[in-house]
Amino acid sequence: MPATTRTTLRRSLAATAALPLLIGALASCGYGSQAKDASAEKAPIAADAKKLSAPEVRIGYFPNLTHATALIGVKDGHIQKELGGTVLKPQTFNAGPSEIEALNGGSLDIGFIGPSPSINAYVKSKGKNLRIISGSASGGVKLVVNPDRIKTLDDVKGKRIATPQKGNTQDVALLNWIAEKGWTVDAESGKGDVSVVRTDNKVTPDAYKSGSIDGAWVPEPTASKLVSQGASVLLDETSLWPDKKFVITNIIVSQKFLSEHPDVVEAVLRGTVKTNAWINANPDKAKESANAALKAESGKALAAKVIDPAWPSIAVTNDPLASTLKTQSEWAVKAKLIDQPDLAGIYDLKLLNKVLKAAGEPEVSDAGLGVK
User: What is the reported pTM?
Assistant: First the structure.
């Protein structure tokens, strides 16, 4: 099995946002801001299971398809099985900043999160609060448009295109695509040859229905929600990337927890690697499991007309696709949304590569951004 495990699944949300802007940039991943104890959805622990160096590990993630590894790994017990008697305590979050705050405050040990808040938190702490220890998901971002108003890519000029938030992953990708078309847009105001309209994903379907936007560069499942309202997919962002891969969700860890409990972190990574292998081998069952977890954790499952087209556009992956995070950061710099960040040391992939080697899989790269 390759390091990048793929499924007929591929995904919603994530990758590089403006550092000063990013404290709210991951609103595109979620539907609110508060953490929720997800203990009711976790798998039971065997009575004779042996504890590792920590009695528990607190893992955070979003009730979202781009966090399928966590949704399924927690619900179906893949991660808990590797932890033995160490208790997995899951928490769900609806925004990146609240998850980062929990990690910084010591109430969270490991988190599934997009690259944008990872970069923001790493730089703001001068490299002292977290490490990216694995990838989790790739892809799942699309440009969807009103087919009556936009029929070709050139027709986007002069139109109103929504992104989730100024400086977030999709916003930066759209601004870069516009620049490569030879058009100009002021990144701060969104005004120019294309009107970039920053709109929360919860509001975007209503904005599209009312006609106040002509399209949107958005993650799944928002893209498929718009398609269910009559929009058409004009461009899948994966087509713009080498090998059709770009990071959308990472796994991060508190540096303190990593230092004190590497055996627990390694066990979690064994669980996520095995979860991704199961998703790859059982895509239809995995889709059902993810949707069941969404219903349990957020109170509502996705409709078939949304999840069926959204699921194949997301790929689960052990590889953090570090070079794509680096590229996304460069796009944000080019758009003058951020200054050049120092990302040296943001990755620590030693334990992941140990797990992959034991599983007979090739090691993954940190693109020169790993700890020395």
Answer: 0.82
**Which residues, 6 or more positions from 55, have their beta carbon under 8 angstroms from its beta carbon?**
86, 87
pLDDT at 11: 36
| Cα 281-62-178 angle, rounded to 5 deg | 90
Task: Tell me the C-alpha distance between 108 and 62, whole Å.
Answer: 14
Q: What are residue 144's phi and psi, to 5 degrees?
A: -115, 140
Which distant-in-sequence residues (6+ apart) come within 8 Å of 87 by Cβ?
45, 55, 56, 57
Closest alpha carbon to 96 in 249, 222, 214: 249
Question: Residue 181 in 3-state DSSP?
Answer: coil
Are 139 and 246 within 8 A, CB to CB? yes
Least confident of 32-46, 48-62, 81-95, 254-268: 32-46
Tell me the average pLDDT of the chain: 88
Distances, alpha carbon 278 to alpha carbons 69, 163, 247, 269, 281, in Å: 10, 33, 20, 14, 5
Task: State both tokens at 218.
Answer: 């958005």
How far apart (Å, rounded) are the C-alpha atoms in residues 153 and 234?
A: 7
For residue 12, what pLDDT band results from cuts at 50, 70 and 90?
A: very low
pLDDT digits (tens, 9 = 90+) for 108-132: 999 999 888 888 889 889 999 999 9
3-state secondary structure 300-344: CCCCHHHHHHHHHHEEECCCCCHHHHHHHHHHHHHCCCCCCCCCC
pLDDT at 64 over 90: no
As a dihedral over the C-alpha atoms of residue 322, residue 336, residue 221, residue 365, rounded to 10 degrees, the angle is 0
Are the CB atoms for 78 and 267 separated by under 8 Å? no
Tens digit of each residue's pLDDT (9 = 90 or more) over 269-287: 999 999 999 999 999 999 9
The amino acid at 101: E
